[in-house]
Amino acid sequence: MDFVKLNIRGISYSQTQVGAYALILEEEFGGRKLPIIIGNFEAQAIAIALEKDLMPPRPLTHDLFVNFAKKLNVIIRSVTIYKLEDGIFYSNIVCEDKDGEVIELDSRTSDAIALAVRFNAAIYVLKSVMDRAGVQLEMLTEEEEETVQKALKEIEEELSETPQGPAEDLYSKFSIKELKSMMNKAVKSEDYERAAQIRDEIEKRQQDND
């Protein structure tokens, strides 16, 4: 199978989903971009790894995984995005243990990339997936470049700020029927953090009505 090597171009606001971001990957040789919608938590995890000077006070989930893997002499060699189905990208993490045995682990693409950055591992996409989902752009416009930088800055600020009000405030204007539909879409797109927030809002309203 033919794979195309990708580099991380940046993180931008999603124009299609509230509270989500678009991770922009770019083929190493060519102008095509591969945008992947990710949640806020995943965007933070990738942004922290990209910004070397940004150090959280305690290890985040991906940092804990890295520490755990290194203690067991396991390294990540690469990440491969091998399928696109119903708008979801499927990926494998290619690992190698201390004996040189290569192991492939199924992973959400956002998690795989968050770990790839931490291990300085290569990111590849199946050529047929890139041909199907890649966007031909020679370069980002100045406005788009500013949007990417603004998104990264906001993520950094969110990490350093005191947590704000409850997440359910974001969903207070929606009906329960709309919330259930949104929750199903979030689960389908593997945005489990958002799905949990919506579930909590639904449960809260149901309890208030009892």
From TrEMBL:
Q: Name one GO biological process term.
A: SOS response
For this UniProt record, give its keywords in alphabetical order, as a comma-separated list.
DNA damage, SOS response
Q: Where are the transmembrane segments?
A: none
Q: Which domain of life is it from?
A: Bacteria
Query: What Gene3D superfamilies does this protein map onto?
Result: Bifunctional nuclease domain, UVR domain
| Residues of the signal peptide | none
* Pfam families for the chain: BFN_dom (PF02577), UVR (PF02151)
Q: Which GO terms describe its molecular function?
A: nuclease activity
The BFN domain covers: 3-137
Q: Which positions fall inside the UVR domain?
A: 173-208
| The protein's name in its UniProt record | Bifunctional nuclease family protein
